[in-house]
Amino acid sequence: MRYLKIYLMKLLICSFLIVLSYFKSYSQELNAEVTVNYNLVNQTSNQVFDDFERSVYQFLNSTRFSNESYNSIQKIDCNFIITIINYKDNQFTLNIDVSSFRQGYNSTYKSLNFLFRDIGINMSYQLNEPIIFSSSRHTSDLASLLSFYSKIIIGFDKDSFEINSGIDFYSDAKFIFDNASSLSSNSTWSPTSNGGRVNKYWLVDNLISNNYDVIKRINYNYYRNGIDLMTTNKDVALVNIKKAFDMFLDINRYRPNSILKEIFFISKNDEIFNIFNNDSELVDIDEIKLILNNISPFHSNKWNKL
């Protein structure tokens, strides 16, 4: 009887662990890597920076930013690279580079879907301070910043699989931004930060505006009808990617400086070059170069090497 009780107890514990692992694997949305670089700061102790890195990592990888459940394959790979510019008395000035990746269908290849740099952010953080997520209120600049970009990452990922399916997450990011801008003294929540164009305000403004829906459709077509077909029908994939570029020609006439177009080419210029450089015999490369130079002249030096 005694051995039976021990056996049943072990069975119960194993069952509990299996159920726990199931819910853990079907949980939140992000698979985030976090790097905190504090080489620019002259500090005798790095304890607060190491603790800061651990707290950010735990927040991003344990917080659920929606009611949806993601398994380990569905989780979105992303990077948060935080550079500490200045630190004194628990006050940080930092830059943050946020990127996320989207895996191609039936492939191990991961494409850079979102890339954004946010600079000159001022905030406070002290050792062992909890980062508290709230969907309804501003708890701290750090919590709002991380939640804002997490929502954007999830929205970008969803939009690459289904047109306009990320809009609810962009709306959530706008809500986070509005709360932070009204309650925080941090100037980076202002529409005029970073020169008044490439900042959080204009990022989320473009994402929720119907005026820029075409760029979200371009990103969708680039992935679903391009990248996702590269392993099964490369000829068709290349044609469809070229068609996605053609759509930029129209928006260039009335929205030439969209932040979303800038993100598209900053994140994908290397990938685009490699795609057409490796398979130049399958397309009219001169036409591709002409289109790319027209819609993304900043990267002309690269396009002209095709």
Largest sheet: 4 strands, mixed
H and E order: HEHEEEHHHHHHHH
Q: What is the structural class?
A: alpha+beta
Task: Report the span from N to C terminus.
Answer: 77 Å
Approximately how much beta-strand content do the residues carry? 15-25%
Question: Nearest-angstrom radius of gyration?
Answer: 22 Å
Give the overall form. Answer: globular
Give me the count of strands: 4
Mean pLDDT: 90
- Summed up, the domain count is 2
Question: Considering DSSP H and I runs of 4 or more, what fraction of the residues is helical?
Answer: 40-55%
Could you list the spans in which at least 5 consecutive residues all have pLDDT below 50? 2-26
Number of helical regions: 10
With strands numbered from the N-terminus, the spatial order across the biggest sheet is 1-2-3-4
Describe it for me?
It contains ten helices and four strands; from the N terminus they run αβαβββαααααααα. Strand 3 and strand 4 (110-124) form a beta hairpin. The protein has helices at residues 2-25, 47-62, 141-159, 167-183, 200-208, 213-224, 234-251, 259-278, 285-295, 300-303, and strands at 30-37, 76-88, 91-103, 110-124. It is α+β, with helices and mostly antiparallel strands. The chain has a four-stranded mixed β-sheet. It has two domains: 29-184, no CATH class; 216-303, no CATH class.
